[in-house]
Automatic annotation (TrEMBL):
Catalyzes the conversion of acetate into acetyl-CoA (AcCoA), an essential intermediate at the junction of anabolic and catabolic pathways. AcsA undergoes a two-step reaction. In the first half reaction, AcsA combines acetate with ATP to form acetyl-adenylate (AcAMP) intermediate. In the second half reaction, it can then transfer the acetyl group from AcAMP to the sulfhydryl group of CoA, forming the product AcCoA. This is Acetyl-coenzyme A synthetase. Gene3D superfamilies: 3.30.300.30, N-terminal domain of ligase-like. HAMAP family: Ac_CoA_synth. GO terms for cellular component: cytosol. It catalyses: acetate + ATP + CoA = acetyl-CoA + AMP + diphosphate.
């Protein structure tokens, strides 16, 4: 049966988009049948110091596992994002910055970008940063975050950006994992009228981890922050002294460009490693195709550069395509819930890309705050981060887009580097709630729990059977974990961790994570990490964390906590536990619900049966399934009876 709700490709887009229906079909076939020729041709979109002759060298099998793209190519990512645009666009705007306060904004031309990136790159060099060294970046959404990333890319240093919402402990863990010796931060950030104490958080982190020799501090809000003699440098002072030119480091395509930490289903966050050639190519290719980007347009991706969406579509993909990219430091509801749409009008944004959670939050305030704006500059809308519920899709389409703008629902992951399943505005009819179809070169399979391939209209686990250039190359420092996490569940295939339905038209509908990862406001959270943070408390014996449906966040965090014998379950303790998680990981990991659990449902071998905990959290009490294999089935009755509201 075909879904009745279809939004066809608008005729004007079908006629003029970068890729139309026939182009899409042809590219799918070419990428599959003649990959080397196809990707070599596509790779010309980048500026290479030495064009690759080896294009694709890939095996997902254990014996000869390898993922290499454009292997003998040489390039520099910052040259692709800046220098190559200078001859035609030196005075055109590369970055529009919109501050937390509506009175604060600024533009940066490609010429200015070049100078500022080079100056900072020279500061890094002068302080001993060499090719391959890891540089930690902990900055707000300001142009300097892009300068810092590009300055690293210019000299071949590997950046590790940490989202400003992560705690000192999280910073310390990430610095330690990649043995970073250099940190770039700011005095403070501003979000929704509140200050974020970035420098203070870095100072606390560096009490817990050794090895950092230098901290460059940007004066952003200008508040007084203590400087550690011999360690801390003032960004402004140092870059003023530095030369405005810095020769770009020639990088092999497979040289790492960055590490970005993301939560997994077990243990500590993984350092997802992306490369210079394949990643940059995929960022640029997908930015152009998915958003049908044309030079001169203003592109606004609301994601923070602390997440992969910010890396790929605020910085690398956008700038590689000479886009004018908008960076917004604030939040959607400050000073009012019209802020997004005011910014659209103020900067004449053409393409707007955000997360379903933001749309759901704004929807609650009705249509008036949207309708108070013009939005006539908008040409295309996008979403990312989690499945978008059809209700939010329709609101986005009808109210924000006045029924005239296509919506690209882009499915991807930190690991994939850029979008893999997405409509192409000129080629794909839309269905609300579906990320639609794979991009050229993306070979999907849906398998059952045993790995049997399911064909036709079906539902199961989403796998990818062949590599694409933007694929992550390893977990930093742990090739074994990389292979085990992604390629061992279904041998020979990359397992996404997502459940997925395919309809009779071949459209893909992501149903959510099938592993112990929850998606909170479009951000991935490992349940194991939250559990570890909870059990650090002296009064806690054990904790189990699951996701549950949350109106705004998509999924909320539901924690079952068993206290030590004799400890009283008080509201103060509940607050202390939430505070502990904020402290250990960051505010985004704070549990929404804590239920006291005298016991957890375990099998006789001691394994916690999360399926049951999920059902209780979801309030699907009739669907608890078979509990007879539990060591003590009576614990379930107690959990149901005392279910937190
Ligand atoms: C997980 C990846 C890609 C950048 C943001 C999140 C979910 C992402 C969609 C979408 C349905 C989506 C998946 C995926 N997800 N986009 N359009 N429709 N689900 O990156 O933190 O690496 O999380 O987010 O579950 O596996 P991430």
């Amino acid at each position: 049966m075909t879904d009745p709700e279809i939004y066809p490709v608008p005729a004007d887009l079908a006629a003029r988009a970068h890729m139309d229906r026939a182009g899409y079909e042809a590219a799918r076939i070419a990428a599959r049948e003649t990959p080397d020729a196809f990707w070599a041709q596509q790779a010309r979109r980048l500026d290479w110091m030495s064009f690759p002759t080896k294009i694709k060298d890939v095996s997902f099998n254990k014996e000869d596992f390898r993922i290499r793209w454009f292997e003998d190519g040489v390039l520099n990512a910052s040259v692709n994002c800046i220098d190559r645009h200078l001859p035609h666009r030196r005075d055109e705007v590369a970055i529009i910055w919109e501050g937390d306060e509506p009175t604060d904004s600024e533009t940066v031309t490609f010429g200015q970008l070049h100078e500022r990136v080079c100056r900072l790159a020279n500061v890094l060099k002068a302080n001993g940063v060499q090719k391959g060294d890891r540089v930690t970046i902990y900055l707000p959404m300001i142009p300097e975050a892009a300068y810092a990333m590009l300055a690293c890319a210019r000299i071949g240093a590997v950046h590790s950006v940490i989202f400003g919402g992560f705690s000192p402990d999280s910073i310390a863990g990430r610095i330690e994992d990649c043995q970073s010796t250099f940190v770039i931060t700011a005095d403070e950030g501003c979000r929704g009228g509140k200050k974020v104490p970035l420098k203070a958080n870095v100072d606390k982190a560096l009490e817990k981890v050794a090895g950092v020799k230098t901290v460059v501090v940007l004066r952003h809000t200008g508040t007084d922050v203590p400087f550690v003699e011999g360690r801390d440098l003032d960004w402004g002072v140092e870059t003023d002294k530095a030369s405005p030119d810095c020769a770009p480091e020639p990088m092999k395509a497979e040289d790492p460009l960055f590490i970005l930490y993301t939560s997994g289903s077990t243990g500590k966050p993984k350092g997802v490693l992306h490369t210079t050639g394949g990643y940059l190519f995929w960022a640029s290719y997908t930015h152009e195709l998915v958003f049908d980007y044309r030079p001169g347009e203003v592109f606004w991706c609301t994601a923070d550069v602390g997440w992969v969406t910010g890396h790929t579509y605020v910085v690398y993909g956008a700038l590689a395509n000479a886009a004018t990219t908008l960076m917004f430091e604030g939040v959607p509801n400050y000073p009012t819930v019209s802020r997004f749409w005011e910014v659209v009008d103020k900067h004449q944004v053409n393409i707007f890309y955000t997360a379903p959670t933001a749309l759901r939050a704004l929807m609650r305030d009705g249509d008036a705050p949207v309708k108070a704006s013009s939005r006539q500059s908008l040409r295309l809308l996008g979403t990312v981060g989690e499945p978008i519920n059809p209700e939010a899709w329709r609101w986005y389409h009808e109210v924000v887009g006045e029924g005239r703008l296509p919506i690209v629902d882009t499915w991807w992951q930190t690991e994939t580097g850029g979008a893999l399943i997405s409509p192409l505005p000129g080629a794909t009819d839309l269905k609300p709630g579906s990320a639609t179809k794979p991009l050229p070169g993306v070979e999907l399979e849906i398998v059952d729990a045993e790995g049997a391939v399911l064909t036709g209209a079906t539902e199961g686990n989403l796998c990818i059977t062949d590599s694409w250039p933007g694929q992550m190359r390893t977990v930093y420092g742990d090739d074994q974990r990389f292979f085990e996490t992604y390629f061992s569940t279904y041998p020979g295939k990359y397992f996404t961790g997502d459940g997925c339905r395919r309809d009779a038209d071949g459209y893909y509908w992501i149903t959510g994570r099938v592993d112990d990862v929850i998606n909170v406001s479009g951000h991935r959270m490992g349940t194991a990490e939250v559990e570890s943070a909870l059990v650090l408390h002296d009064d806690v014996a054990e904790a189990a964390v699951v996701g549950f449906p949350h109106d705004i966040k998509g999924q909320g965090i539901y924690a079952y906590v068993t206290l030590n014998k004799g400890v009283e379950a008080t509201d103060d303790l509940r607050k202390a536990l939430v505070a502990q998680v904020r402290e250990e990981i960051g505010p985004i990991a704070a549990p929404d619900v804590i239920q006291w659990a005298p016991g957890l449902p375990k099998t006789r071998s001691g394994k916690i049966m999360r399926r049951i905990l999920r059902k209780i959290a979801e309030n699907e009490l009739g669907a608890l399934g078979d509990t007879s294999t539990l060591a003590d089935p009576s614990v379930v009755d107690d959990l149901v009876k005392n279910r937190a509201a």
